[in-house]
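The material for today's practical consists of a large collection of protein records. An example says more than a description, so a record of this kind follows:
***
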Amino acid sequence: MDNSILFSMRLSLQVAAVATVFIVVIGTAVAYFLARREFRGKELIDILFTLPLVLPPTVTGYYLVILFGRNGAIGRPLHEWTGWTVMFTWYAAVLASFVVALPLMIKTARAAIESVDKNLINASCTLGHSELETALKVILPLAKRGIVAGAVLSFARALGEFGATLMLAGNLPGRTDTMPIAIYALAGSGEWSTAHGMVLLLTLMSALFLYLANRYSRRIV
């Protein structure tokens, strides 16, 4: 297998894995907060977190450039303080994948948390368990099927992320060319045979992860 294909495959897996770690931690916390709390502005927060699910990825990428670009609201002070910018690095691919895939985790985990029997939650509180203990020992274990499903869906989405990644990370061979970006570049240069191979490989990888997720979800029911 060509070294450039191996690099793109390794980078895609690396970006998806790192993004998924942050997605699981932050997405589960946000989902729990939205599922278990009632407060003003709740729907607005829900919309803001899940908006990337319906926005074109290039639009999401545009917003990220505005925020994290060299002159962006976050990117400019970050560059002035550290001399470093996230643009055109593999960290940018992680950031783009995180933002685009996060809504899948929030929606799936929130539905799972909301479906937990409230009688069990009330019983835990009646027995004197704190909210944190109830969350860790009752709610999250009972919602784990949805949380695992959300994590795998988010990983698969991050693995195939293209539009926002291209806007923020660019297409730098050997640095930021994840598999979807490499496929785009190969198709643009007319290297169809190599593009066909990478498309097939990415399809098989995505199908494999979904198959493993289904097997695992059934096992932990």
